[in-house]
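Researcher: Here's the sequence for the chain we discussed earlier.
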Amino acid sequence: MIEGGLRNDMRAGMQLLARYKGTDYLAEVFTGDDGKPHYRLAGGREFASPSAAGKAITGRASCDGWKFWSVAQ
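Model: Thanks. This is the structure I predict for it:
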């Protein structure tokens, strides 16, 4: 889970980790053309929010990206 203060401090190069149905997934934070943090999955797909990246993994209509992802250690 990504806690409140860290939500506003996502920086390019940070790695996020999620475990879903026994599989680990990684996402890299990068700066989008709009200057805001964006999220790139290992396969290269890019998303404007952690929720959108989580939805791509789960296939669900919604995903709370802040609960789905953790900062990789």
